[in-house]
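Ticket opened by: R.M.
Priority: normal
Category: complex prediction / small molecule

The reporter submitted a protein together with flavin-adenine dinucleotide and asked that the result be attached to this ticket for the collaborator who will pick it up next week. Submitted input follows.
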Amino acid sequence: MSEFNHLLSTDKQEKLLDTEALITFEQLVSHTLKHGFLPTVAPELKHITLAGATAGIGIESSCFRYGFVHDGVLEVDVLLPDGRILTCRENNEYADLFYGMANSYGTLGYVLRAKIKLIPSKSFVQIDNHRYDSVL
Ligand SMILES: Cc1cc2nc3c(=O)[nH]c(=O)nc-3n(C[C@H](O)[C@H](O)[C@H](O)COP(=O)(O)OP(=O)(O)OC[C@H]3O[C@@H](n4cnc5c(N)ncnc54)[C@H](O)[C@@H]3O)c2cc1C
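Result attached by the on-call engineer:
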């Protein structure tokens, strides 16, 4: 299934990325940075896939603002055990499956495609170091 790793489209106006879900975050971020964007959450380990971080939960420092990886997912195509592929969103007839995918560890179906939110990226990161004399 790792062949399902192709980018499909980037909507800069709406800040959305449509992609096959076995794309790794390394591939995903390499693409979005060229357009000045990032996913809301980018797990540090570069070979984690978008689907794996959705079904298996993905976190990173930006979660304090945007939630988990799956909170940035707007739509998924899910392959069911009977061979059907359902497009699931929060507001369609498959909303229960959409909400059930996070933390499902592949038990409900296999995510083939996902549409995710993007956020603007900046060229530099400012780091401030604050020194404390006490842990209190
Ligand atoms: C060294 C190391 C560093 C890590 N660092 C981070 C980190 O910085 N941030 C973070 O969030 N996590 C981190 N993790 C944990 C990692 O994010 C999770 O284990 C993640 O779920 C792995 O995703 P994966 O793409 O490698 O998928 P896998 O490990 O292959 O699968 C993870 C789970 O998702 C299911 N799954 C995979 N693909 C699909 C699919 N297409 N549809 C449905 N279910 C699917 C699998 O059945 C499995 O239950 C780290 C893990 C390790 C070992």
